[in-house]
Amino acid sequence: MSATVYDFQGLKLDNFERLKLRPVEGIPLIETTADTWDQVKTFQAKSDDLLIATYPRAGTTWMQEIVDMINNKGNIEKCIRGPMHDRFPFIEIVPLPPSPSGVKHAEQMQSPRIIKTHLPFQLIPKSFLEEKCKIIYVARNAKDNAVSYYHFHQMNRGLPEPGTWEEFLKKFQEGTLCWGSWYAHVQGWWDAKDHHNILYIFYEDIKESPRREIQRVMQFLNADLPDNILEKIYQHTSFEFMKKNPMTNYSTIPPPIFDHTISAFMRKGIVGGWKDSFSPSQNEAFDKDYMRKMAKSYLMFKWEL
Length: 305
Ligand code: PPS
Description:
40% of the residues lie in helices and 11% in strands. By secondary structure, it is of the alpha/beta class. The chain has a single domain, classed as Rossmann fold. Helix 12 packs across helix 13. The longest helix has 14 residues, at 142-155. The radius of gyration is 19 Å and the shape is globular. The termini are far apart. The relative contact order is 0.17. 3'-phosphate-adenosine-5'-phosphate sulfate binds next to helix 3, helix 8 and helix 14. 3'-phosphate-adenosine-5'-phosphate sulfate is lined by residues 54, 56-62, 144, 148, 151-152, 237-239, 242, 266-269, 273.
């Protein structure tokens, strides 16, 4: 029997192997990122670039859509001009050809650019800081973040095999997953926010009070928009709407890369969903380890709403 051959952007793909990780300055990254690291490191940001940074699965897509809606003053037609991966260069990513690398994509794009990254603070191209670019960092509680990342590994062949949930959780705690340790990531960006132009936002806070947090983002972007536009942004960026919207739900990336039948990119979009995945003993051990790793941190997360 012949293997399924998928057509992706004109490319015939079969037997697409999962990508491997390779450390860059001690952080495990996708091997194609590691291969092209010099280009990422020396990327030249412009002062009107906005960088959206997150640990993977912390709410990047949500924030991207919120920012795009703010920049376009609530004009939905403008925001559905293309899928996420076309509208926002993902700076360290090297997708399959013919898509350009994140760096090339950004270079080809007109300003003002909104750029996505999952890099820990110490690895972002220094030009973002030299140019004093605005940066929005979204953080999500470790348990929901880990569960979401696990399901994402299952459906995304651009990442290594996740193994069982038990095995995956261990790797999450050890910091050996792609983009490294969640603990160091959220803390590194937290420490950096007092020295750079960074708005630090929590996924749980957006969930709890989306209008309030959208207003914080508006303020940060110096966007003074009336209440009816705020309402439109709120509606358009709700989980239900974004899950249905092909420009935000990544349905434009088909198998063999994203297999939405295994898990949807827009999966549950809730706070506290981790309770269905963590066994009582996993939860106890995780909490103990968390206390140890975060003992000196002032970061406080909401684990449920
Ligand atoms: S990625 O792949 O790293 O860019 O993923 P990212 O966008 O950071 O995170 C995906 C998770 O965010 C949820 N999401 C939302 N939650 C609530 N409201 C809205 N509008 C929204 N948009 C995205 C998405 O469902 C993923 O979380 P889980 O828990 O897996 O559902």
